[in-house]
Amino acid sequence: MPIDKSSLYFAALESAIDLDPLMVAPETPVAEVLALMSQLRSSCPISDLLPTSEGEAPPKIRSSCVLIVEGLPPGATTKSTSSVSSQELLGIFTERDIVRLTAAGQNLKTIAVGEVMTRGAITITKSHNQDIFTALSLFRHHKIRHLPVLGQGGEILGVITPTSIRRALQPANLISQLRYVKDVMSTQVIHTPTTTSVLNLARLMAEHRVSCVVICENSSHQGKILTKPVGIVTERDIVQFQALDLDLEKMQAQQVMSAPLFCLNPDDFLWLAHQEMQRLRVRRLVVAGKRGELLGIVSQTSLLQALEPTEMYGMIEALQRAVEDGTKELQESNTRLSQEIWERRKAEVALKIAHDELQKKVEERTEELQKANALLQEDIKRREQVEAALRRSEAHLRKQTEQLEKALNSLKQTQSQLIQSEKMSSLGSLVAGIAHEINNPVNFIYGNISHASQYIRDILKLVRLYKKYYPEPVEIIADQIDEMDLDFMISDLPKLLESMQFGSERIRQIVLSLRNFSRLDEAEMKWVDVHEGLESTLFILQHRLEVETDAGPIAVVKEYGNLPPVECYPGALNQVFMNILTNAIEALERQGTLRENSPSTAPRCITITTQLVPDRCEPEKEWIEISIADNGPGMTKTVLRKIFEPFFTTKPVGKGTGLGLSICHQIIAEKHGGQLECVSQPNQGCEFILRIPVRQVKGAG
């Protein structure tokens, strides 16, 4: 059936009108208006200045606005609309105007309210065509919080505010029970530290046209700065402080803020917000996250945003249709049920007759079934014997299949490792050959530089002697000296020789590192210094460590212990160092890319630690322990469990084979009888720990 919307909501509009607004003449000083508006206590901690006890609730919420009316005698005030039917509404003066004047430093005692009021106030004329949602639309369209109500003759009837609308609609607010705080909360919250003065709070409210400022403190959580709300100061508090004639510039926010705060969760229902506003007698609530960080604020205006007229009308009509449809379905079901009862009674009679006939047939069939059952038991026994034989055969085949799959996977892994080993062996031979070819000419250059330096120093000494004892050379020699710029050559030539010597020394170090690292094809164990292998690997990777990016180069921290020579396969051990250090560099490079969007002050770093440790079971047996750690993004537990499995990789397709760490584990565990483990957590970096015995046991590898 159709719904009479006016009958539903006209009464709500009547109940939303405050019939007792505060009205003054335009000549009234602002200070007197301020005293009238703040006759009741505030919710801030400075309430001990006011004569109300903690347990005593105010008789009603004090006025948040004043209507400026023409025709009242100067100094006269009224809160009854019946005596001002002939007066004309000139404007409106609200708490926001007081905050604006306070922020501007105006002397409220010397200004009349008519000079600073808001002229041309938005009004609504009471009629049968207006409902409560008309007022809501005017609030949203004009961004106001006070709406004077006029009669058909222009007389002042009262004023509508978000508080009065919420109070009028609270019993039937269906939509607010189905929506969440996060749907209507405002995320543009003005907040400030606890040390901010109250005068600056008023200036912030006036500048940003807000009704409150949230007082916050900063705290750190996992390297991030969180802004946590600890209190709130509202326009109403500013009005109260002005009425008490307090020095706002000397008062700090932490002295007057309302605390502790009751904070909402963004996933709470709006109905909870409405109930808490009623219980706490406040007009706004702060919304905080799981860690207490500031997310937004919900006010009475926010709650009213949920009351969209179209949605309310549509919901009520849908409920009415559902009730009508349900009633119709119940009537049809009742008719069908009556017919079904009659048919069932008729069927019961027929069923009794059929039951007697069936019982006779059942007795006959039972005898036949008993005979058939004996034959079936014998057949089942034979089938069970066949099924048991099939299950044994299936288990045998499954076991063979598993053995074949394991053999195939082992073959694939061995094939890939052989290919990788052959590649590394060829690389070692190639690197060794190149190092040998470079080494001969470099030694020739490096060996002759010292002699050339000595010869040139002698020549320069001779030139200086010539200049000293023959200061007046012949003209052709003087011209040649000027053309050559002899003084520059004398000063620059030693620098050239020094740079040549430095370059040749650098080449010799590179060749030495290549020769140390190229021992990949050595088939016998040797006593080596593992520090030399680490240094050679770091030297080869130096170009990747020193790359200049926004995140800076990668630092290497060396904490070497006093280690004895170790019996090992030096080439294979160098391969392990290379794989682990390369993975650490790539992890830090990925982290450097992420830091462009999330900057961090922690520099990228790789820490290498070596030490001599005793055997856990045989204290007289010595082991060396090498730790390679980075402060990169780390790994999850799922990735950590699979890193040593063959062909497992987290790199994109084509970027990795998934054999690096698997081969490293095989080299350490099988070839050297050692241990390789990894310790990592997300965002906590990664650490690989290698342990091998100083002396290999006979038969190891």
Automatic annotation (TrEMBL):
<feature type="domain" description="CBS">
    <location>
        <begin position="185"/>
        <end position="248"/>
    </location>
</feature>
<keyword id="KW-0597">Phosphoprotein</keyword>
<dbReference type="InterPro" id="IPR005467">
    <property type="entry name" value="His_kinase_dom"/>
</dbReference>
<keyword id="KW-0175">Coiled coil</keyword>
<dbReference type="InterPro" id="IPR046342">
    <property type="entry name" value="CBS_dom_sf"/>
</dbReference>
<dbReference type="InterPro" id="IPR004358">
    <property type="entry name" value="Sig_transdc_His_kin-like_C"/>
</dbReference>
<keyword id="KW-0418">Kinase</keyword>
<dbReference type="InterPro" id="IPR003661">
    <property type="entry name" value="HisK_dim/P_dom"/>
</dbReference>
<protein>
    <recommendedName>
        <fullName>histidine kinase</fullName>
        <ecNumber>2.7.13.3</ecNumber>
    </recommendedName>
</protein>
<keyword id="KW-0129">CBS domain</keyword>
<dbReference type="Pfam" id="PF02518">
    <property type="entry name" value="HATPase_c"/>
</dbReference>
<dbReference type="GO" id="GO:0000155">
    <property type="term" value="F:phosphorelay sensor kinase activity"/>
</dbReference>
<dbReference type="InterPro" id="IPR003594">
    <property type="entry name" value="HATPase_dom"/>
</dbReference>
<dbReference type="InterPro" id="IPR000644">
    <property type="entry name" value="CBS_dom"/>
</dbReference>
<dbReference type="InterPro" id="IPR036097">
    <property type="entry name" value="HisK_dim/P_sf"/>
</dbReference>
<dbReference type="Pfam" id="PF00571">
    <property type="entry name" value="CBS"/>
</dbReference>
<feature type="domain" description="Histidine kinase">
    <location>
        <begin position="433"/>
        <end position="696"/>
    </location>
</feature>
<feature type="domain" description="CBS">
    <location>
        <begin position="117"/>
        <end position="178"/>
    </location>
</feature>
<feature type="domain" description="CBS">
    <location>
        <begin position="257"/>
        <end position="319"/>
    </location>
</feature>
<feature type="coiled-coil region">
    <location>
        <begin position="316"/>
        <end position="424"/>
    </location>
</feature>
<keyword id="KW-0808">Transferase</keyword>
<keyword id="KW-0902">Two-component regulatory system</keyword>
<dbReference type="InterPro" id="IPR036890">
    <property type="entry name" value="HATPase_C_sf"/>
</dbReference>
